[in-house]
Write a structure and sequence with these properties.
It is globular, with a radius of gyration of 20 Å. Strands 1-2-4-3-5-6-7-8 form an 8-stranded mixed β-sheet, sandwiched between helices. The protein contains 11 helices and 8 strands. The chain has 289 residues and is α/β, with parallel strands linked by helices. The protein has a single domain, classed as Rossmann fold.
Length: 289
C-alpha cells in the first residue's frame, strides 16, 4: 500500500512539474502583439510606427510616435518588461507636441529575441544601433527605468556625444548595492531555469549577468558630461535609493546632475508617479546649447 501511495505521489509530482514547465514557457511574457498595440494607438488617433529590424543577426522590435522632425525621448524598460511600459507616455498629447518618442523591447524581451538574455555591453551596442538608424539630427534624451538605468549609462559611455541627457528612473547602477540573491544563480545555471515562467527566465538570467556587468561601467562615468537626472523613491524595496548617492559621487565632475527623490515612493515610479516624471520630461530642452 505504501509503495502504491509513493508511486502515485511521484507520478503526481511529475505530472505537475511537466504541466508547470509547459505553462511556464507559454505565459507571463509581459508583451502585447502589434495588432493590439496598433488598435490602442488608433483609438487615440495617434499615428504609430511598429518596427522590427535585424541588427547583426538579432531581431529588435520597437514602437515610435510623434513628428519625425522633433527631438526624441528614447525609453528603455526594466526587467521584465517591454516597450509597452511607456505606452501612456507615448500617447500623451503634451509630450507629443514637444517630442518624437521611441520605446524599444530590450534584447530578450517583448519581440526582441524573447527568452534569450543579453549582457549589458551587447544590449547597449544593439540599442545604440537603433538610435543611429532613427537619427533625425535632433537631440536624443535617454530614459531608463530600473535595469534600463545602467543600459542608458553604458550607451552614453559608448557614444558620449550622441545624447542630450540621461534620465535614470529608480536605476540599478551601483555594483556594491546589488542584493546578493544567490538563489538566482540556481535558476540560471541549472535545469531549474525551466521552472521560471515566461519573461521571468530572461529577467532572472540578465539580473545575474548584470550583477557582474555593472562593474564594466563603474570606471566610465568620467566621460559622461551631459545632463543627468536621477528620479528615485525613498521607499524602493527593489532598488535601494543608495544608488542615487552612488551616481552622484561617480558624476562629481559633472555640474549638471539633478536629483529628484519622491517621498514614500517604491520602485514603480514611471506609472505610480507619472506626473512627476512627465513634468521632468517636459522640461528637457528641445535644442542643444
Amino acid at each position: 500500500m505504501l509503495f502504491k501511495k509513493n508511486r502515485k505521489l511521484k507520478w503526481s509530482i511529475l505530472i505537475f512539474l511537466s504541466g508547470w514547465i509547459i505553462f511556464a514557457q507559454s505565459c507571463m511574457k509581459f508583451r502585447i502583439d502589434d495588432s493590439e498595440a496598433r488598435r490602442s494607438f488608433e483609438e487615440k488617433n495617434i499615428p504609430a510606427g511598429l518596427v522590427t529590424v535585424k541588427i547583426q543577426g538579432f531581431y529588435l522590435h520597437y514602437v515610435k510616435t510623434g513628428i519625425d522632425s522633433l527631438p526624441t525621448l528614447f525609453f528603455i524598460h526594466g526587467s521584465p518588461g517591454s516597450w509597452d511600459a511607456y505606452r501612456t507616455y507615448m500617447m500623451d498629447t503634451a509630450l507629443l507636441r514637444r517630442f518624437r518618442m521611441i520605446s524599444i523591447d530590450r534584447p530578450g524581451f517583448g519581440y526582441s529575441g524573447f527568452g534569450n538574455a543579453v549582457r549589458l555591453p551587447e544590449q547597449a551596442f544593439l540599442i545604440n544601433k537603433i538610435v543611429e538608424r532613427e537619427s533625425n539630427r535632433q537631440p536624443v534624451h535617454l530614459v531608463g527605468h530600473s535595469i534600463g538605468g545602467p543600459v542608458i549609462v553604458r550607451m552614453a559611455q559608448d557614444y558620449p556625444t550622441a545624447y542630450a541627457s540621461l534620465t535614470i528612473l529608480a536605476g540599478s547602477i551601483s555594483p556594491g548595492d546589488e542584493p546578493k540573491e544567490y538563489w538566482r544563480y540556481l535558476f540560471t545555471y541549472s535545469p531549474l531555469k525551466l521552472l521560471m515562467p515566461g519573461a521571468f527566465k530572461p529577467s532572472n538570467d540578465e539580473i545575474v549577468y548584470f550583477k557582474e556587468d555593472l562593474h564594466s561601467i563603474d570606471t566610465g562615468y568620467s566621460i559622461i558630461k551631459i545632463p543627468v537626472t536621477f528620479i528615485h523613491g525613498d521607499a524602493d524595496k527593489f532598488v535601494t535609493v543608495k544608488n542615487v548617492e552612488y551616481g552622484k559621487k561617480k558624476l562629481a565632475h559633472n555640474p549638471d546632475v539633478k536629483i529628484i527623490i519622491i517621498p514614500g515612493a517604491g520602485h514603480f515610479i514611471p506609472w505610480q508617479h507619472y506626473a512627476v516624471i512627465k513634468q521632468h520630461l517636459m522640461g528637457l530642452p528641445k535644442k542643444l546649447d
